[in-house]
């Protein structure tokens, strides 16, 4: 059985239109005219359902193998394979060859029907693998007509599925995933893939890529090969990032800097100017002691097509502007809530015994940062879900000529949108926040009402790290809920609603119908998820060196989760031909190039790495100071300017009660 079609019997529904039956009969007649054999079977579980089993005979397969230029074996490869030290090491992590036999290697050539005798045909039934047979069956189904009106033909199983003529169309799994089939000749490849690839016990094993390609096709095989390679690269990046993180916490310069902030005799004696007008009080620098310790040291027709594409570009630009508007909305929220937190948070913590232990950790800056990051994440996920439907509609409206053009167009739209959606708030924190704030007595205002926000004394990198952590973690949790929990719950409910007596034997085609269908876009969302993650790992790694480590843990789970989903929860994927990862490759290259610029800018303009180095090597010794050894002692004092309090104007002068320790001080920093 190369393919299965499922439909509801109209005789069971009097209200069903007869047009569907007419189109279905025309379609099935077209298939039989092409030499395809069909056999209908009534459902065991639901009497309204009918399953049409599709079989493509050997002669028809030969015809379409030549049309599709499918490469098939001509003779075994007799060239000896060279072993390497790497192979000697990694072979211990591959599944045992006693369990998954090594695929025989052949010389191949594009098939020609008139040269059949030149090909390696030991068994006509085994010459074409099940994946290749399913691919050719789907090719036939996609081109068989189902209606003719005058000179215009309507064809393709996709439109019949969209129109409800058929409820499903899918190739069959070869066995159950958790029980080995006892049928003679059954390869049990699904069972092997689950046990040696998708099962949690195999988390340390290398992926059986040859078997994955053989069972699911080249496109999925390439995806998992790329995902495995990307995960290996993350291992190296995680090691470097972890080293930078540890080094930033243990270096003498960093520890000296944080000690000065936390020291009651240094940071406790430095009086800082109010951070908002009137209602914000003066404050001591050591109140930000905990956040300062997060500091890290890190180096169709021309006219018609033009109209459709222009409409698509305009729609994309509108949604990009909508994202920017949402970012501005979050910024206004931050400005307003910072004033609120500054006025009330300290007093609430002071008079609440339950919250007293958190007094040192919960600052107005930290509270504003965390709440705004959570709001940003919620907005991101809502806009993603809405724009996804808009992007598909725009791409359908453009009428791309081929499936490759369709995927490339949709890829560009979705990535552009998600790039702005996910990264805009991070770019704002990294490069714009705290850069234009004015000075005490004459601050800069947004919309004439909201005073522009400043960075925490610990630096904007602390807030950027918070933003990245919340978005990365939230995105990973949400994606796993969508990929794991929802399909499992749907399958569980479907099985519960359609359960039958134990005496009935449920055939393979009905068991597979209970599984979740693979969407039209296939691996699109898997690639998109990984490319967005790649952006988080590379674009802002200078501020968050642990991002590769988090991504590594996520990907180790992602490989097994995707494997579990494909082998246990989803119908078998229609195999597709592929040579590479397509439009995602130039996108990854573009992100990598941009990452060099963003990290250089973060180090140069956002972090205080360069000022600290200049102070350590130049200003901490003579002639600029009395010391003879290079040190970070005194850096805090040298980095803060002095403001005379009597220079405040009436709009900015604090009106709240001054703290008990103020003691008529005349300057603030």
Automatic annotation (TrEMBL):
Keywords: Cell membrane, Glycoprotein, Membrane, Transmembrane, Transmembrane helix
Membrane-related topology note: Multi-pass membrane protein
A molecular-function term among this protein's GO annotations: chloride channel activity
Membrane spanning stretches: 223-249, 316-341, 361-383, 530-553, 587-606
One Gene Ontology CC term in the entry: plasma membrane
Superkingdom field: Eukaryota
Anoctamin transmembrane domain segment(s): 212-251, 291-643
Compartments (UniProt record): Cell membrane; Membrane
Family from the record: Belongs to the anoctamin family.
Protein name as annotated: Anoctamin
Annotated source species: Cyprinus carpio
């Amino acid at each position: 059985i190369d393919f299965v079609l499922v439909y509801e019997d109209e005789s069971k529904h009097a209200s069903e239109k007869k047009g569907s039956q007419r189109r279905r009969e025309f379609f099935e007649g077209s298939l039989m005219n092409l030499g395809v054999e069909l056999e209908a079977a009534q459902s065991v579980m639901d009497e309204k359902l009918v399953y049409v089993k599709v079989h493509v005979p050997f002669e028809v397969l030969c015809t379409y193998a030549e049309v599709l230029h499918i490469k098939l074996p001509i003779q075994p490869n007799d060239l000896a394979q060279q072993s390497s030290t790497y192979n000697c090491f990694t072979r211990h992590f591959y599944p045992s060859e006693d369990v998954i036999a090594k695929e025989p290697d052949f010389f191949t050539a594009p098939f020609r029907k008139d040269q059949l005798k030149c090909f390696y045909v030991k068994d006509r039934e085994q010459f074409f693998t099940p994946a290749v047979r399913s691919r050719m069956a789907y090719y036939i189904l996609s081109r068989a007509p189902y209606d003719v009106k005058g000179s215009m033909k309507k064809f393709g199983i996709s439109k019949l599925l969209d129109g409800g003529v058929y409820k499903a169309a899918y190739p069959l799994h070869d066995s159950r995933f958790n029980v080995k089939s006892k049928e003679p000749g059954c390869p049990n490849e699904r069972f092997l893939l689950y046990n040696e690839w998708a099962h949690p016990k195999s988390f340390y094993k290398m992926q059986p890529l040859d078997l994955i390609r053989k069972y699911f096709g080249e496109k999925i095989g390439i995806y998992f090969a790329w995902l495995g390679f990307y995960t290996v690269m993350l291992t190296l990046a995680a090691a470097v990032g972890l080293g930078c993180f540890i080094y930033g916490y243990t270096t003498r310069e960093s520890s000296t800097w944080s000690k000065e902030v936390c020291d009651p005799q240094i940071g406790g004696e430095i009086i800082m100017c109010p951070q908002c007008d009137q209602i914000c009080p003066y404050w001591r620098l050591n109140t930000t002691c905990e956040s300062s310790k997060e500091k890290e040291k890190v180096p169709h027709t021309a006219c018609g097509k033009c109209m459709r594409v222009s409409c698509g570009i305009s729609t994309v630009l509108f949604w990009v502007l909508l994202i920017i508007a949402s970012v501005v909305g979050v910024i206004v929220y931050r400005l307003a809530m910072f004033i609120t937190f500054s006025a009330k948070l300290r007093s609430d913590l002071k008079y609440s015994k339950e919250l007293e232990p958190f007094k040192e950790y919960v600052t107005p800056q930290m509270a504003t940062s965390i709440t705004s990051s959570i709001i940003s994440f919620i907005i991101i996920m809502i806009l993603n879900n809405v724009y996804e439907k808009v992007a598909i509609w725009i791409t359908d409206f453009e009428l791309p000529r081929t499936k490759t053009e369709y995927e490339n167009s949709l890829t560009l739209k979705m990535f552009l949108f998600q790039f702005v959606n996910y990264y805009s708030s991070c770019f704002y924190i990294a490069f714009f926040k705290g850069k234009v704030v004015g000075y005490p007595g004459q601050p800069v205002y947004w919309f004439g009402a909201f005073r522009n926000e400043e960075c925490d004394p610990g630096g904007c990198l602390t807030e950027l790290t918070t933003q990245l952590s919340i978005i990365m973690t939230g995105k990973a949790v949400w994606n796993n809920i969508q990929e794991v929990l929802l399909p499992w719950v749907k399958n569980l409910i479907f099985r519960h609603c359609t359960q039958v007596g134990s005496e009935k034997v449920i055939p393979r085609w009905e068991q597979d119908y209970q599984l979740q269908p693979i969407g039209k876009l296939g691996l699109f969302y898997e690639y998109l998820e990984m490319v967005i993650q790649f952006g988080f790992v590379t674009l802002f790694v200078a501020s968050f060196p642990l991002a590769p480590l988090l991504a590594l843990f996520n990907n180790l789970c992602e490989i097994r989760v995707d494997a579990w989903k494909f082998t246990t929860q989803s119908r078998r994927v229609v195999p597709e031909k592929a040579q590479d990862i397509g439009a995602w490759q130039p996108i990854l290259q573009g992100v990598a190039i941009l990452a060099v610029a963003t990290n250089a800018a973060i180090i140069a303009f956002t972090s205080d790495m360069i000022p600290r180095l200049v102070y350590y090597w130049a200003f901490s010794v003579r002639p600029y100071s009395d010391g003879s050894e290079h040190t970070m002692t005194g850096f805090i004092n040298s980095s803060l300017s002095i403001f005379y309090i009597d220079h405040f104007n009436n709009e900015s002068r604090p009106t709240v009660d001054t703290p008990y320790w103020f003691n008529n001080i005349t300057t603030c920093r």
